[in-house]
Amino acid sequence: MGNDITILIGGAAGYGIQTIGNLLSKACHNAGLFIFSVDDFESRVRGGHNFHVIRISNELLSGPSLKLDILVAIDEKTYLNHKDELAPNGIILCNDTGDDTKMSNTTSHIPFEQLARDAGGKIASNTVAAGVILAILGASFKDLEKLLQAQFEKKGKKILALNLMAGKSGYDIGKTIQFYRSFDFNKSNHSNVVMSGAKAAALGALASDCRFFPFYPMSPGTGVIVNASAFAEQFPLVIEQAEDEIAAINMAVGASFAGVRSMSVTSGGGFCLMTEGLGLAAMAEIPVVIINAQRPGPATGLATRTAQSDLLFTINASQDEFPRFVFAPGSPKDTYNAVKKAFHLSEKYQVPSIVLMDQFLIDSTRTEPDDLKIGSEHESFLLSDTKMYQDEPYLRYKISDSGVSPRCTPCSGPFLVRSTGNEHTPEGLTSEDPENRNMMVEKRFKKVKHMKKEMKMPSLLCTEASFFLTGWGSSKGSIIEACLTLREQGIDASWIIFEDIWPLDEYKLKKILRNKKLVIVEGNATCQLGSLIRQLTGIDYAFSILKYDGRPIYPEYIIEKVQQIMGH
Amino acid sequence: MGNDITILIGGAAGYGIQTIGNLLSKACHNAGLFIFSVDDFESRVRGGHNFHVIRISNELLSGPSLKLDILVAIDEKTYLNHKDELAPNGIILCNDTGDDTKMSNTTSHIPFEQLARDAGGKIASNTVAAGVILAILGASFKDLEKLLQAQFEKKGKKILALNLMAGKSGYDIGKTIQFYRSFDFNKSNHSNVVMSGAKAAALGALASDCRFFPFYPMSPGTGVIVNASAFAEQFPLVIEQAEDEIAAINMAVGASFAGVRSMSVTSGGGFCLMTEGLGLAAMAEIPVVIINAQRPGPATGLATRTAQSDLLFTINASQDEFPRFVFAPGSPKDTYNAVKKAFHLSEKYQVPSIVLMDQFLIDSTRTEPDDLKIGSEHESFLLSDTKMYQDEPYLRYKISDSGVSPRCTPCSGPFLVRSTGNEHTPEGLTSEDPENRNMMVEKRFKKVKHMKKEMKMPSLLCTEASFFLTGWGSSKGSIIEACLTLREQGIDASWIIFEDIWPLDEYKLKKILRNKKLVIVEGNATCQLGSLIRQLTGIDYAFSILKYDGRPIYPEYIIEKVQQIMGH
Amino acid sequence: MTKTKYDIDNENQWCPGCGNFSILKAMKQAFTKLKLDPDNLLIVSGIGQAGKTPNYLACNMLHGLHGRALCLATGAKIANHNLNIVVTTGDGDCYGEGQNHFTAAIRRNIDITLFVFNNQIYGLTKGQASPTSAFGMKTKIQQNGTVSSSFNPLATALVNGAGFIARGFSGNIEKLSSTMVDAMKYKGFSMIDICQPCISFNKLNTYSWYKERVFDLENNGHDNSDYKKALEIVHQNEEKIPTGIIYKKPGIPFHERLPVLRKQPLSSYVFPESELKNILGRA
Amino acid sequence: MTKTKYDIDNENQWCPGCGNFSILKAMKQAFTKLKLDPDNLLIVSGIGQAGKTPNYLACNMLHGLHGRALCLATGAKIANHNLNIVVTTGDGDCYGEGQNHFTAAIRRNIDITLFVFNNQIYGLTKGQASPTSAFGMKTKIQQNGTVSSSFNPLATALVNGAGFIARGFSGNIEKLSSTMVDAMKYKGFSMIDICQPCISFNKLNTYSWYKERVFDLENNGHDNSDYKKALEIVHQNEEKIPTGIIYKKPGIPFHERLPVLRKQPLSSYVFPESELKNILGRA
Ligand SMILES: Cc1ncc(C[n+]2csc(CCOP(=O)(O)OP(=O)(O)O)c2C)c(N)n1
Ligand SMILES: Cc1ncc(C[n+]2csc(CCOP(=O)(O)OP(=O)(O)O)c2C)c(N)n1
Ligand code: SF4
Ligand code: SF4
Ligand SMILES: [Mg+2]
Ligand SMILES: [Mg+2]
To answer: Whose CA is nearest to atom 26 of ligand 2?
Structure first.
């Protein structure tokens, strides 16, 4: 393993903790280093206890970490809550409040606020902190200067000067602090991207030619919309705040019917309100993509926290039954690809696609090699050459071998496009006839055979191992890292990670999982993936490692639990 | 088997087909006979093709039937659609329209309308039909007279006279028609009840001391509300039409919080809109009962038809996870008991209860032995003696061994009752603390162990058989009847019927199902009960008999499919 | 009935004698007057008797969920604002389940035309009270009469800035169809609340009940650009039911409020592949 | 701050300087004036900053879902109309997600008191436009400004028959608390739309922006029984913001409309076991 450290910066909301994180992450990115950063915040706008954990390495990171090499405690709470997470040889930087009882070999008191005030304003104390940290990590002041310039240029000379001064005084102090590691900030050629899941989802939608984002604000989903709206000037996009989630999904369905790809983003409570509209999309066979950004519930639960607890709800949501796609990407880059796949397959099969994300994936940022491609996902399945329908009648719900019928947009030719959420004939007229009903149910389900073939089976590290850490979605990185660490410790672990969730080919899945000792790892209390596996294959799991406190699953947590299970 | 015949009466909506059915069923009931009747109607108010099938026997009937002994075709469509369902020796009564091409040994033409007009008004032609049928069945004119008197008394002398005359002329014609069976209408002492599922559900709620029914109209759920509203004068009931389903569930939760038992009734689309409120009830631990009256979907689907396709949705509905009860009664009497149990357990465990019904169960009427009891289900679990809270603090969400905390109503003592859909402390204050979160998730799930003990395992005819017709809910009767018929044919079938659905003890269930050849019978396309069984036990089913055309599962259908499976 | 190109071979499921037949006729007349071909017309509807309407017309159709027709229509119009969109909905559909979308559509001034078949009852579900049912009206479920005062849709629309507000009566097809033509010509959100007798369930607001009360605003010299007058009219109680255009003022429709839509319909842009490549490089 | 019996030991999560603190203070003053003990008071709330309010008060609390506070409150009041129920909600909560329940509560005239903390923004979700945001206001997501005209809650309430309509301003605690007292004394549905500066996200409608515009209706001799005047007032544009009681008229609250509730609260009936047995015998 390479050079790899973790820094936690904590303080009150509104202090600008995130800005420090952004500066660090940019400095590292410019130098070709890899980061993995996580934000932890309360459901409030100012005050309280927020923190940002940034892990930095010169190699690709798959997961976050909680073994702190540097703890930056802007407030007392941060110190108290996190001092026990300090790694051996780790150091603590405390805001100097006059009280020096915490002073020790590993703890430096730094007057962040005083230095900022000296530079011209308390508001820049986060810049002081950034300066201290970058100096410790081995960056040059030039690196910091460039970043501050870029960040504060637009805000006017005064603010820029203030921040440069604050950064400098922080940097100077940082230089005096002993730390056991440093990075090479001189490298620069690289082709990495740093992205949050939120940004990746927005980009994935754009790359799929999604043009309409009707939404109703809900944490943590709103982040995707904020990211998309940054492109609203340059792209043919309409980002429309709906009056509620019911309106959002129905507006998406309406736009898609009229030929514009649409996506809505929400979280559990909003997804509840969308379930009826999901069924409409299914019945009318109108493509639509929904991101359900999970957070802990039930009900309002923990609004700004993370969970992986909507798996079975998402698969079974809405009355009666219909084919749908469900994806659960494990990283920002996976998200980009999953969203593209969601659009592509939703359009190809005329069924709804749901992408399961969560607060952890949405808000955490990481460096990944850049291979964000524009593929054929944006290519349309809408019939554009509709000349044949001048002679033969156009049947929106024509029975076909694949179950997929010719989709045209309304008013695009000399024929009528008739869609409905009632049971209907091939023409799209409502019908209560039992034979027609059977035919239509069967038509819709014919797609499933083909849909299954589009889905990736879960990935494995290796097929022979004494047990398999089995998970899905956002905990992918932590599972992989935990697994690799365990193997380094001589423990014969492998992983099984699901990213394409539904529909899966039960027979193929059974083949993969058969005779394997499964240890399910997921962010909920009832082991939903375990239930789903048993439902599909009859195969039972051996153990489960669950977490439902609203915080991400860190590799350390998995390792600890595995060791417990193994009786270590 | 006893004397057992089936009559189908079909015509346009608005004709009064249901009135004929009601008259027949009352006449039979008075005579201690048993009936099983099913209404089949389109999603329209007048016109179209509706029919009513009534099966009559001198023994208890478990299922409906479609082998017609008498076909009463008020319109042409009825004749065409149903003539092939005629049993050997069955007879047809056609409305005489002048065209006698259909005349045959088994077919009589009867001028229903003309006779009614002669009696004074076309509107009474359904009474003519009732007269004809009752005469054929062996009732005396006195029997009919009594019924008509009771039915039309309030409507004034003129209407009563008209109907008596119409009934008489029908009766006289009926007397001239040859039929191979007749019933004894002189018996009268019996203690049976005739009820629809809708009425049973309403009575069950009343017997549970439910006082508040906030609802939004939706077929087929509205029937329950119509039945409940018949008692609004005599009982402390408020039946309030909400502005939408979201309001309905939240009003129910609000009332329950304030100490009044509440129930809402809806169907799939409305249930979608209720899912978020369901989660609120769960998180705030406020009891509430919901009837989800299933109909075919997705979306609006077939609004007046039947389905058993919301099983997995109901179990998994709403974000995140929480304990809930799900029941699926198989007959009106079962419904009465299931609703009582739903209330009782919802109050006892402070979790939501859902009763899965469907259009078939809601609308069909049948005779069952009367043992509708008032038990202890209405007894309150609310703390009334709250003196202790003058000294110790009252903790609405106190951690306890069973997971159940003391429930008081607001403003009922010198303490504060604080409930919330956010994660919260024992006091009911919102909290984001991870330890508190873990404690609360675990508190809520502690209940499940106890809840499972309250649940009935599925019922079996016998434990050894060559296969088991396995189903749930409204198809119970048809499965039982099919099973008994198959056994008469020498086929070694048994049944397994689920009525208590969730949560079930997986180990007990495994014991019951192990090594049995399961043939799942249900009203959906994906075999949801089969999936659920596999999810809980890992046990796979051998075959499935599914039906998703929106019509009930008749015993004949099951038998036919079993014979296909067995290669007959 | 004379044949029109909007006729379709599909059995009508309304009760014989229902006011909806006249509204259907008025719609066909209006489309004819507007020379709108069926394949150039999109009717979006909710669930209810009114929601069935596009099933009885040759037109493009999107027949959605109960209460959500305006959302579907808004989405479709944003996607392609060249579409001619009419929404047919009921009083329960639009003012009950879907009320939040009603004011939202007004506030967006989305350029569609809304026809509310207001029979003051839930027809399709067999006669429960609707938001516009008269206070105290008895139904099968509201056995002692409704206990909510009735919703005032036109006043709600007016005070929230709607630019075209009219009332119609199914009993006057000529007048209704000409109001429909005006509504459809209006650039922005236009609505006609249409009095429609439900002969099966509403025994209070019958054809003759309406007939006795409706009067034509135009014949009474109403100036429909006068907001104050309009405000008075929408407050008029049941004894007099004004029909025709109550209020009309020009406004900027939604698709002219957004730069991206001012250029061209959203659906007609080409995929911006190269711009996208630029962005991805910098992600 | 002086101590009151409504204080509670719970960390307040609002931004320092938020207008909500003044509203909280006004509420405590009003409850004190009304001599309402905490254990005799039920506050129902939705989700949003305003929804957090009962967490900062000693009171009975039902803190529900976003948009649904009025439904919960309606249910609780129907169950036990002896309860004193106040609803605290935000402009997004009440006029956005929950708008359908707003007019429904008015139409029922359910006897509860509604305080809308109207900061013309979605506060808790970090600053998106709300239904009452000014047309054209820019936010992080509405980068070119909102494209919907704003919702007029008071006019909507008035034209739909609300019997007690007032506006308050968090910047005038005395006045606000006395309006609150009046609202809570009113028998039926009463509402105060409260101007509340959100210092974190609404940079347009700031404290001083409001301060410059608000004026007291009472000082201007407003007759709050005059519907026409009230109608004018609720139409006043942003330049002048009237505060105080705008309209007040007596009405019959929901629980007096139903015979069963006229007798006694629903929760206080005894289980009618013998009547039930009668019915079951005849089932
Ligand atoms: C979510 C949902 N709730 C309820 C229903 C049942 N439903 C169908 S139509 C209708 C009311 C129709 O009333 P209205 O809109 O006035 O139309 P009308 O039939 O009177 O024309 C209702 C409640 C539904 N289809 N979906
Ligand atoms: C169903 C649902 N949708 C969205 C949200 C997210 N949400 C929480 S508060 C809020 C808006 C708050 O705005 P407002 O009601 O004006 O209250 P404020 O915070 O401004 O006081 C939203 C959209 C939610 N909790 N539930
Ligand atoms: S129920 Fe009423 S609205 Fe519906 S079709 Fe019949 S008459 Fe018309
Ligand atoms: S975000 Fe605005 S409304 Fe919310 S607490 Fe802060 S200042 Fe108040
Ligand atoms: Mg209606
Ligand atoms: Mg707000």
So the answer is: D66
Q: For residues A396 and A493, state if they share a domain.
A: no
> Distance between CA C217 and CA C233 in Å, rounded?
9
| Three-class SS of A340-401 | HHHHHHHHHHCCEEEEEEEHHHHHCEEEEECCCCCCCCCCCCCCCCCHHHHCCCCCCCCCCC
Judgement on whether residues B210 and B285 belong to the same structural domain of the protein: yes
- In this predicted structure, the answer to whether residue D237 has a pLDDT above a threshold of 80 is no
Last residue of a domain, one of A140, A175, A210: A175
**A311/A328 Cα distance (integer angstroms):** 9
Q: What is the pLDDT of residues B3-51, one digit of tens each?
A: 899 999 998 887 888 889 999 999 999 999 999 999 888 888 887 888 9
Task: Say if the Cβ atoms of D39 and B430 lie within 8 Å.
Answer: no
- Please indicate whether, in this complex, the C-beta atoms of C126 and B222 are within 8 angstroms of each other: yes
Q: Is C130 in the pocket of ligand 3 (CB under 6 A)?
A: no
Span C43-81, pLDDT tens digits: 999 999 999 999 999 999 999 999 999 999 999 999 999
Beta strands across the sheet bearing B263-266: B263-266, B288-294, B352-358, B325-327, B500-502
**Where does the pLDDT of residue B1 fall: very low under 50, low under 70, confident under 90, or very high at 90 and above?**
very low
A230 & A285 share domain: yes
Best B319, B424, B437 member to test A by mutation, with max A CBs in 10 Å, is B319
Residues with CB under 5 A from ligand 5 (ion): C 90-91, 119, 123
Residues B157 and B8 in one domain: yes
* Contact yes or no for B420 and D60 at CB 8 A: no
Which of D88, D122, D201, when mutated, tests ligand 4's pocket best, judged by the most ligand atoms within 8 Å of its CB?
D201
Q: Mutate which of D106, D135, D146, D149 to disrupt the C interface (most C C-beta within 10 Å)?
A: D149
CATH level 3 topology of C20-252 = Rossmann fold (3.40.50)
Look at residue B432 and tell me if it is in a domain.
Answer: yes
* Nearest residue to A284 (alpha-carbon basis) of A431, A419, A464, A472: A419
Classify C74 as helix, strand or coil: helix
Domain housing A416? 387-453
| CA atoms lying within 13 Å on the CB side of residue C188 | 18
In the predicted model, what is the mean pLDDT of chain D? 96
D119 lines ligand 4 (CB under 6 A): yes
The chain-wide mean pLDDT, for chain A, equals 94
Does B519 share its domain with B411?
no
**Nearest ligand by distance to the CA of A422:** 1
Q: What pLDDT does residue A1 have?
A: 47
Cβ-Cβ contacts under 8 Å, C65 against chain B: 269, 299-300
- Residue A347 pLDDT greater than 50, yes or no: yes
- Chain D nearest-CA residue for C99: D100
Residues A439, A333 within the same domain: no
Model confidence pTM above 0.95:
yes
Q: What ligand has the least distance to the C-alpha of C201?
A: 3
Is A410 touching C (CB cutoff 8 A)? yes
B100 pLDDT above the threshold of 70: no
**Peptide bond before residue A329 is cis, with ω within 30 degrees of 0:** no
How many other β-carbons are positioned within 10 Å of the β-carbon of residue A86?
A: 18
* Domain membership flag for residue B376: no
- Residue B386: its pLDDT value, please? 83
For range B418-431, the mean pLDDT = 97
| Percent of chain B residues topping a pLDDT of 90 | 84
A375 belongs to a structural domain: no
A66 in a structural domain: yes
Domain harbouring B61, CATH code: 3.40.920.10
Helix (H) and strand (E) counts in chain B: 18, 21
Mind listing the pLDDT tens digit for each residue in C136-173?
999 999 999 999 999 999 999 999 999 999 999 999 99
Structural domain count, chain B:
4
Relative to beta strand A263-266, strand A325-327 is: unpaired
CA-to-CA distance for C263 and B325, rounded, in angstroms?
A: 55
Determine the distance in angstroms separating the CA of B330 from the nearest CA of chain C, rounded to an integer: 25
pLDDT score at A2: 66
Q: What chain D residue is nearest to C154 in terms of C-alpha separation?
A: D159
User: How many angstroms away from the CA of B232 is the closest CA of chain A?
Assistant: 31
